[in-house]
Every structure is written in C-alpha cells, then in structure tokens.
Design goal:
Strands 11, 12, 13, 14, 15, 16 and 27 form a 7-stranded mixed β-sheet that branches. The protein has a 5-stranded parallel β-sheet with strand order 18-25-19-20-21. The model is unreliable at 1-11 (pLDDT under 50). It starts with a helix and ends with a helix. Helix 4 crosses helix 5 (119-139) and helix 9 (236-247) runs parallel beside helix 14 (519-537). The chain is α/β, with parallel strands linked by helices. 27% of the residues lie in helices and 23% in strands. The chain is globular, with a radius of gyration of 24 Å.
Length: 540
C-alpha cells in the first residue's frame, strides 16, 4: 500500500513559480534549521507558511517518533502543511529537518492575503494541501488515535465526528496487538477504549468538542467582534452562502453544531448533482465547498450551536452559543436545515451510537459488516444509505411506512433498490421495539396490512425519517409556519424570496418553508442569498 510519504513525493509535488517565490520574499523571512530540529509539532496551531529553499524535511510518525512512511521527504521548491493552514487549525503531524535546511516563512494572515491577490499561486497551494489531507484520511495518518470504537459508543461518536469533519485518525480495535502496545506506552489499561494524541497524551473523558479544540477546529472569537454576516448552519445552503460571502469580500462566520455538510453530509453517494456523472458523497461535496470558502477568508466554527438570538438597538444581531460564547453580525443567514425525527419508541435513545444511527458513512458501515442492517425511511437519503450499506452488509431491510416510494424517492434509486438481491423493501412496515442490553441486538417490526409482528436480528438500524426544522434558537424574531419552518418572501410581505419577517435575517435551504428538499436547490439558494445580504448591508 502507498504511504502518505509517497503521496507527498509524487501526487502533490507541484512547485510554485519563480514569481510566486519572489512575492513571498517581499513579505517573508528566511529561517535556518539544523539537522534534527523540529519545524512544528503535532497539535501546534498553524501560524505560518513555510517554503523550502534548500535542505530536506521529513514527516514524523506520531506514534514512533521516527520518519513516517517509506522514506519520502520534502525538498527544495516544496512547502510544509496541509489544509489546516486555511483555517488556522492544528498540525496533524510533526515536520523535522533531515539536514541543515533553509526555509522562507510567511505569517499565515499575510500569506492568505497574498494568495487572495495571486489566484494562480493559491490554486497550486490549495491543490497540494487538499491532496495531502486526502492522503492522510485514506491512510489513517494522524497524531489522533482511537482505540475501541467497535466497543464504546463515545469513541464511535468521536470517530463519526472526525470522519464527517475530515479529521485524520488512526483507528485501532481492542484486540489488535498495536492497540495493546499503545496502551502500554501510555500507561493505561489494556483492552480499554481510549483516545490518544501523539505518543502519549491520553484525552480524559473525550468528546467531539474536546477533539475539535485539540485540532484547532473550535474557533474562538471576541464577544464584540462584528461580522458582516453570520451563517448559522453548515449544510449545502450554508456552505454555498459562505463561498459567495467570502468571494464578495464580506467578513463571514459559519457556525455549525456537528459537522460541515449537515444532513447532506451523511449521504454516501449523490448521483443526480450536476457535474458529477459518477456521483459524489455529500460530505466530499460540502468539504470542497468549505475549502473554497476558506480560500476566500470565510471562517468556520465547529462544533458550535446557536441557542439564542436577539436584535440590539443598533440593528445588529447578537448570537449566544451553547458554550456561552457570544458574537455579533450585521446580517444573518439561517441555514440550519432539518434533522431526522426521533421515533417514539421505548429505549431508542439508550441505543443511539450503540446500534441506532442517523447517518450512514464509512464509520458506521464498518460496524455492520456481514450483518443484517435496517434502514428506516422512504426518501433519497434512506435509499442512498441502503445502496451504500449493501456493499458490506449481509442484507439490508428498508422499512417504509407507506405503500409506495414514488412520491418520496427518485426513480433511479427506487429501481436500484428493487433490483438489488441483498435489499428488501418492506412497505407499510414500522419498527415498534428495540432489544438488547447495552448494545442493540434485535428489533421488532410490524406490518400494518396484517398486524403481524416479527423480529430482525440486527446491530445497526439507520433512522432517516421526517424533517424537523432547527429553528428553536431564533427566539421568536422571525415568523414560522405551523410545522416550524421559516416563512419567507411573499408570505411575510417581502420582495426577496429568502427575506424573513425580520429585516436583515434571511433563510435558505431545507429550513425555509416551501423549499425544495434537494442539495442542488439548497446550493442555489445559498449562492443567491448573498446578493440580497449585500444589498441590505449597503442600503444606507
């Protein structure tokens, strides 16, 4: 198998032009490292861009301290770092001088400004950074090690959070010899779930928020910091708005409570999005948009959830987040989308992340290999999940409350589900009961046609039903319809189809009443709404 080091040597060796280096010399400084000296360590925040003038650098294996991979290194005309540079996150691996090395270093903010003014240079840098991050993800090359995700729901939640936020992790099962060796090196109990950073930093009581903070994703900001526009929600609509806000020069912040991509980020394969004839995962589509937005200067804060909203006397909007942090903006874009409804079934919450899931990605799929799997729902997301899980599951049961999929699922998906030998669609059928101790091991389902109950032995049920809008945090500032979706346009006497009843607040995507629940339409709304925000901000 290729290693990350080989990837750095071949796939991403795209040199900057002489003119680009000359531009960096005007704003940067030269730095000399002696052989063995470390440029940066895993977990340190990215504060500069470093270009090799001469010498040689090596990536450091986070677990051994030796050279990572098969020996490939960085040499003259190459540069250090990965996509974390764009948002000021943390390095996932250390970089060390193999021999005496000269670097040209530019402060991060200065380099981002230079990249904005020289798009050809920006294209090269971002292409290389993105390719390195993909290589790390594919090869699980990271300073972050997860042990026992197969046995512990908290570790599974962290694995899911990392996967959806494109955080590289090394995942080990409890019975692996490597896991035992890591536990011994860290002086922790063997065969116990754990989260470890670097060679020996054990993260106590690990949570997605702690991991985000350790990796530099949990963006901090000053309470009195005023943004031009605050975009709440990081799904396709929010990310599209972020791209266009940044490209228009607006100071924009995106707040997302779990993972950039939103509900669409859980879609394993979207085949009807224009420009991707072989399909693309929702997570990858939104990640590309996130990178694009960061290139234009938009910032992302994850995982941060808006809990209250108020409008000040000066017309600005004041947001309070779930951790008590506060921030302000002159305009607000509501892109919080919807979430799958929780079924009214006894003990359902007991099995969440322990057999009950609301996303079907690679992380969840590895826990249901060669087993019976159940998908509940009749929409496109449920159909995509069933097709994706059928690659590794022994059989996939799709439970549909109605007697047809014609009104809720695209025809191409319905045809594939019906033709697949390892997928069975159960119409007019619902789950009624969960069984198991600490982990799900079976469910009871009921056929409404004859009232018959029967059990399916399964340790993975994917719930993808309903659409509950995320609007509680709006604190009554905008009008909602009876289902809780945000009313816009003519419904509230506004000429713009995205304007709400409160001037300066706009709603796009699935959270907007009357929206078309498709990724393409969400992207379109997020792209267009920024022109309305611009008009509002420049009306005076």
């Amino acid at each position: 198998m290729e290693t990350l080091a080989a990837d750095l040597k071949t796939m991403v060796r795209t040199p900057l032009e002489d003119a680009h280096v000359a531009a960096m010399r005007k704003v940067g400084v030269e730095r000399r490292l002696k052989a063995g000296e470390v440029l940066h360590r895993a977990g340190e925040l990215v504060t500069e861009f470093c270009y090799l003038l001469d010498g040689e650098m090596e990536a450091v294996d986070p677990s051994t301290g030796g050279r990572y991979g098969d020996g490939a290194t960085l040499g003259p005309t190459q540069f250090a770092g990965d996509i974390a540079f764009l948002h000021g996150g943390a390095y996932s691996m250390a970089l060390r001088a193999v021999q005496d090395t000269t670097l040209l270093c530019v402060e991060r903010e200065t380099m981002l400004d230079l990249m904005a003014r020289v798009p050809e240079m920006s294209d090269i840098i971002i292409t290389v950074f993105a390719a390195r991050r993909r290589g790390q993800l594919e090869r699980e090359a990271s300073a972050l090690t997860l042990i026992g995700a197969e046995a512990d729901r908290n570790i599974r939640r962290i694995a899911a959070f990392a996967g959806r936020n494109r955080i590289p992790v090394r995942s080990l099962t409890l019975d692996e010899a490597e896991a035992e060796a890591v536990a011994h090196a860290c002086s922790i109990a063997p065969n116990a779930p754990a989260v470890i950073f670097g060679k020996g930093e054990v993260i106590a009581d690990p949570t997605p928020r702690k991991i985000a903070a350790r990796m530099g994703l949990d963006l901090s900001f000053e309470e009195d910091e005023l943004h031009d526009v605050l975009i709440v929600g990081g799904g396709p609509a929010g990310v599209a708005a972020a791209v266009y806000a940044g490209s228009e020069g607006l100071k924009a912040l995106v707040v997302e409570d779990l993972a950039v991509g939103g509900q669409a980020g859980t879609s394993s394969r979207i085949e009807n999005y224009m420009g991707f004839p072989t399909g693309i995962s929702g997570a990858d589509l939104c990640w590309r948009g996130e990178v694009q937005a960061m290139k234009f200067g938009t910032r992302f804060a994850v995982p941060r959830r808006a809990v209250t909203l108020m409008r000040k006397d000066d017309g600005t909007f004041h947001i309070t987040l779930d951790d008590g942090a506060e921030t302000c903006a002159r305009a607000l874009v509501v892109a919080t989308g919807v979430q799958y409804r929780k079924l009214p079934i006894e003990r359902l919450e007991d099995f969440e992340s322990a057999g009950i899931y609301y996303a079907a990605t690679d992380v969840e799929a590895r826990f249901c290999r060669n087993t019976e799997v159940v998908v509940i729902g009749g929409g496109n997301s449920a159909g995509q999940a069933a097709m994706f899980l059928s690659r590794t599951a022994q059989h996939v049961h799709v439970l549909v409350r109605g007697d047809s999929l014609a009104a809720s699922m695209s025809r191409y998906l319905t045809d594939r589900l019906e033709a697949h030998p390892r997928i069975t669609i159960h119409y007019r059928t619902q789950m009624t009961c969960c069984h198991g101790d600490t982990e799900l091991d079976a469910i009871t389902i009921r056929n409404a046609a004859d009232g018959q109950d029967w059990q399916i032995r399964t340790r993975a049920v994917f719930v993808m039903v309903g659409a509950a809008p995320n609007t509680q945090w709006l604190s009554g500032l905008v009008d909602l319809n009876e289902q809780g979706f945000v009313k816009t346009g003519a419904d509230v006497g506004q000429s713009s189809g995205y304007a709400t009843s409160c001037p300066g607040i706009y709603a796009v995507g699935d959270v907007r009443a009357g929206s078309v629940k498709r990724v393409a339409s969400a992207v379109g709304e997020g792209s267009v709404v920024i022109s309305r925000v611009w008009e509002y901000l420049n009306a005076d």
